[in-house]
Design a protein that fits this description.
The chain is of the alpha/beta class. It has 12 helices and 11 strands.
């Protein structure tokens, strides 16, 4: 299993949990290897070019698959055509977290502070073109503020710098929620269209800025295009079973991810819809990978 983001992030945590379960149910070893870089493009390209025999699978955010072809001019492959969606694992929201030193306790207060200090505050993301990066740029436009983007090689390193005070805020894919509970960060909002069931008291960004604001992405398993349909069907069934296990439900809940079970066809339709939504957002924001 290739995970196209660094250790510690949502893709890595979910991927390792799924691979451990599949190793038990299929009776075959699943070696997890992290291949981060270029918003998941490096790891995804490795899987896209692998033999279509079911022995190499990719764990990725849907955003990396749906976005990269729109952002990178010289990608060398089309993620939407060279990778076959097998099964979703979980829907992942991003949460707006700020460091405690920022003088704001609500999203409205934070926006007022940003407007009073244009261009002075920064935010981190897992990398250029990532869903949290897109969320940050969408937030700048929707809230009519100016902030500086700082790309990292994964959400884990960005979270580390946020906790250290090197960053002012980030759209966190759930991996830092325990720190807001401990008072080390301030959780202000979620980037979903509706309030998160695990955090019903946390408002959505849209509630405060108005309009639509949806940055949810689905993490899932992919194989090279051309992989036999019977292998895809078997993997889909086993992953669906795995997501019903208490240990995987607990792992997903720890990062506020909501487990999801879909057929390969339904997962493909979901990815295409995300691709269309991302196309509009990229066009509106002018977002490009550096």
């Amino acid at each position: 299993m290739i995970v196209n983001f660094p250790p510690g992030g949502a893709a890595d945590q979910l991927g390792r949990a799924v691979s451990a379960r599949l190793q038990e149910t299929l009776g075959q070893p699943f070696v997890v290897e992290n291949r981060p870089g270029a918003n998941g493009s490096i790891g995804a390209a490795e899987v896209a070019k692998a033999a279509a025999d079911g022995h190499t699978v990719l764990m990725s955010s849907g955003g990396a698959i749906a976005l990269n072809g729109l952002l990178y001019r010289n990608l060398g492959y089309d993620p939407m055509k060279t990778l076959e969606p097998v099964a979703p694992v979980a829907s992942v929201a991003v949460f707006l977290q700020i460091k405690p030193a920022v003088p704001a306790g609500t999203l409205g207060e934070f926006i007022a502070h940003l407007r009073a200090n244009p261009g002075k505050l920064n935010y981190g993301s897992p990398g250029n073109g990532s869903s949290p990066h897109l969320a940050g740029e969408m937030f700048n436009r929707a809230a009519r503020v100016q902030t500086t983007h700082v790309p990292y090689k994964g959400a884990g390193p960005a979270l580390t710098d946020l906790l250290a005070g090197q960053l002012d805020f980030m759209f966190d894919p759930g991996i830092g929620l325990q720190h807001s509970k401990a008072g080390k960060l301030k959780l202000l909002a979620v980037g979903s269209p509706k309030r998160h069931p695990a955090y019903p008291d946390v408002p959505t960004v849209a509630e405060v800025v108005g309009g639509e604001f949806d940055t949810d992405t689905v993490f899932g398993i992919y194989v090279p295009a051309g992989t036999p349909r019977d292998l895809i069907a078997r993997l889909n069934a086993e992953i669906g079973k795995a997501m019903q296990s208490p240990d995987l439900k607990a792992r997903a809940a720890a990062i506020a991810a909501q487990e999801m079970v879909l057929s390969p066809e339904a997962f493909t339709a979901r990815l295409r819809a995300e691709h269309e939504r991302m196309s509009v957002l990229v066009r509106e924001t002018g977002l490009k990978a550096e």
